[in-house]
Amino acid sequence: MATTWKPRIMTAFEQERCEALRHEVQVFFGEEAYEACTTTDACVAQLKKKDAEAITPFLQVFNLWRRHPGIKELVFHKTLAHIAAQLLGVPRVRIFQDSLFVKRPGDDSTLLHTDLGTAPLDTNDFITAWIPLTHVPAVEEGGSPLQFCQGSHIDMAARYWYDPHDNGDGDDTAALLPPLLRYPVMDHAPLELGDVTWHHGWCLHGSPGNEREEERVALTVCFMSADAKVMASDVLFVPDEEDSLSYEEWVGEVGLGNVVDHKLTPVVWP
Q1: Cβ(256)–Cβ(140) under 8 Å?
Q2: Neighbours of 81 (CB within 10 A)
């Protein structure tokens, strides 16, 4: 099945490469620069101005299913949706988003993060399918698979007492607990076309830089319980806005504290 979908997805990405570069501009320079960069050349020129130490981990395009009917068939595939429901232990699931990640040769590591940390959702029922569209070698061979901090999604103590996103390089490491010291780190490489890995929305994960000569390409599909709600206004923390392009079209219409029942977040199982 993967060999059937890959050409469709890569064709869609080439059509939207400019938008991927615009998202990178937004992450590094903000909304004003994002609005000003409307061509590939303008984005490339803007990105040359970023700090030399700024990490560029990948190019990303959100929600290809909304614009490419051929890709919608994969994102909405009943097999994926059923597995998501089974893993979450819920009767019904919705699509939150799909994302295409292209890690180019020389792109840096993806820092540890959680998917729910960038989503405006008040739920624990969230899971991501990571679908490689290229061969992903082992790390020892220069590959860039996802690496997971095992058990981090159920470690309430770490989230309550420490900063779980710290990588141990802060000024006050005595007050922090680097996750790479707290959890066993694992991956599933090597991966081939047809493989799929799954991780919970609160699972800390990242990936090494791409040391290969070819791009590493992967599609993710994020599912949430059909009963998931948008965060209310009285939460203690707000999500990172890095992925706001993905949900800005519907989050205001749904409203704070309400179930995410919207045409852009359809129920896909059952």
Answers
A1: no
A2: 22
Instruction: Print burial letters for 101-140: b (CB count within 10 Å at least 16), e (below 16).
Output: bbbeeebebbebbbbbbbbbbebebbbbbbbbbbebbebe
Question: Is the pTM here over 0.70, yes or no?
Answer: yes
HSE on the CB side for 190, CA within 13 Å? 9
- Does the CA dihedral 261-264-265-267 come out positive or negative? positive
- Helix, coil or strand: residue 223: strand
Helix (H, G, I), strand (E, B) or coil at 143: coil
- The residue type of 46 is Q
Beta carbons within 10 angstroms of residue 264's beta carbon: 19
Q: In angstroms, rounded to a whole number, what is the distance separating the alpha carbons of residues 2 and 4?
A: 5
pLDDT at 97: 98
- What is the spatial distance between Cα 14 and Cα 26, in angstroms, rounded to a whole number? 19
- What does the alpha-carbon distance between residue 144 and residue 131 come to, in Å, rounded to a whole number? 13
C-alpha–C-alpha distance, residues 227 and 270, integer Å: 14
DSSP code for 50: S
Distance CA 66, CA 255 (A): 21
Q: Which residues contact 234 (CB under 8 A, 6 or more apart)?
A: none
> How many whole angstroms separate alpha carbon 25 and alpha carbon 35?
9
- Relative to beta strand 216-225, strand 126-132 is antiparallel
pLDDT at residue 63 tops 80: yes
User: Residue 178: is its pLDDT beyond 80?
Assistant: no
Ranking 56-60, 134-138, 261-265 by mean pLDDT, the lowest is 56-60
